[in-house]
Design brief:
Length: about 300
């Protein structure tokens, strides 16, 4: 959603981390020759903190490592990021709130060329903390999504900072009242613009398998673990666009959205326009391991 003027002011004057130093956001400087500026040559991660306790931090770091490896950025100091993220939560006084930490690593500053620069070029490392409150109304009541052609590149398993295609798709749908996009490539549902998609039919879970066509979701993996522990069958295969209305339930998973029921796709109601029982069960199990266990603040929907 849109941030308020006060929220923007807080972001602008907050303490951030940049290339080994904590500094004020309004005093930070990134070179215009940074390859992130020229080519979107970088990757990112977002970790949610539940009152100072991060959710699946190691899993996020594993995904960050994979993204860096895919685009051949050498950054061996991954283990230092946990301390940096914790410090940003503390310094910005988010210890007792729900917050996120955004981490971005670009290839660094180099002469503009389509070749990768020499390996001695130092990556640019940036991180900032921000408030990340839950979508309580959407989690409780469900949302509408719209189908869109998946126009992104073919390495969606890389959490790239090159998000213009995602942003264009999301902007178009959000302007029409949709919460998210349901992306379709070659007649099959892939994921959403910044979430994973999961369907339910006859008490079975269906979702696109991890591949180059989707981002391997940390929250999605947590949902699949919930299914495994509760002996809920999981089918990992692409869903045809022509079949999307045949499913009993749909829901979104993501660091920001957590578990949000989908009650309408385009103009068609899903599950009589109400969150389904399987979605609600998984949602509540997820809330137990996040808000209840990490934050000590149970949430009942």
């Amino acid at each position: 959603g849109q941030i308020t003027h006060n929220e923007f002011y807080m972001l602008y004057h907050s303490t951030i981390y940049l290339n080994g130093q904590f500094t004020s956001n309004d005093r930070a400087y990134i070179s215009p020759d940074d390859r992130g500026f020229y080519f979107a040559d970088g990757v990112y991660e977002v970790i949610k903190y539940y009152k100072s306790k991060p959710f699946c931090f190691n899993e996020h770091m594993d995904r960050l490592k994979n993204s860096l490896k895919e685009i051949k950025i050498q950054f061996p100091q991954i283990e230092k990021l946990h301390e940096i993220c914790d410090a940003l939560i503390q310094i910005n006084e988010f210890k007792n709130q729900y917050a996120g930490v955004y981490i971005q690593i670009t290839r660094g500053v180099a002469v503009r060329t389509h070749r990768f620069p020499p390996s001695e070029v130092t990556p640019t490392v940036f991180a900032r903390a921000f408030l990340m409150n839950p979508y309580l109304d959407e989690m409780k009541n469900g949302v509408m999504v719209q189908t869109r052609e998946d126009i992104r590149w073919l390495k969606c398993n890389v959490k790239s900072i090159g998000l213009l295609p995602n942003t264009m798709l999301f902007e178009e749908d959000a302007s029409k009242g949709a919460f998210e996009c349901m992306l379709v490539r070659g007649g099959f549902v892939t994921e959403a613009s910044h979430s994973n998609l999961i369907a339910v039919k006859e008490d079975k879970i269906y979702t696109h398998p991890d591949s180059n066509l989707i981002l391997p979701g940390v929250t999605k993996a947590s949902v699949l673990n919930i299914c495994k522990k509760n002996k809920i069958p999981v089918v990992e295969k692409p869903i045809q666009e022509s079949d999307i209305y045949d499913f009993d339930e749909w829901f979104l998973t993501g660091t920001g959205s957590e578990i949000v029921p989908v009650i309408q796709i385009n103009t068609t109601k899903i599950g009589h326009g109400k969150p389904g029982k399987m979605t609600r069960f998984i949602q509540n199990e997820f809330l137990k391991i996040t808000y209840q266990k990490l934050a000590g603040e149970p949430i009942n929907l």
